[in-house]
Write a structure and sequence with these properties.
This protein is α/β, with parallel strands linked by helices. About 40% of the residues lie in helices and about 20% in strands. Helix 1 links the parallel strand 1 and strand 2.
């Protein structure tokens, strides 16, 4: 086995709230990762195509495209891991996320 540390991940974070994006970016940088930030679903899709992230973190409730719509478009081209963040606790949203093959936190 190698003692090498895991290489840093490029992580796309999409949330319409600047404070949440900055909080996540700070935590990711502290862990040695490279955050790429988007303020809405369309911007997230553009950055996904150009940046080729290793992981995607999407807020469910975003302007332009919500997290579910962005996930569907990402899934059409990639099986990259996606985490959906939501303040909503509706069972229907959790089921929708699970049907898309996601972990919802």
């Amino acid at each position: 086995m190698s003692d090498e540390a895991a290489s840093p991940l490029k992580i796309l974070v999409a949330d319409d709230q600047e404070t949440i994006r900055q909080l996540l970016a700070t935590r990711l940088r502290l862990q040695g990762h490279q955050p790429v930030m988007a303020g809405n679903g369309l911007e997230a899709l553009e950055l996904f195509g150009s940046e080729q992230p290793d992981l995607v973190i999407l807020d469910v409730m975003m302007p332009e495209l919500d997290g579910f719509q962005a996930t569907e478009r990402i899934r059409a081209q990639s099986d990259v891991p996606i985490i959906l963040l939501t303040a909503l606790d509706e069972v229907e949203q959790r089921i929708m996320g699970l049907n898309l093959g996601l972990m919802i936190t």
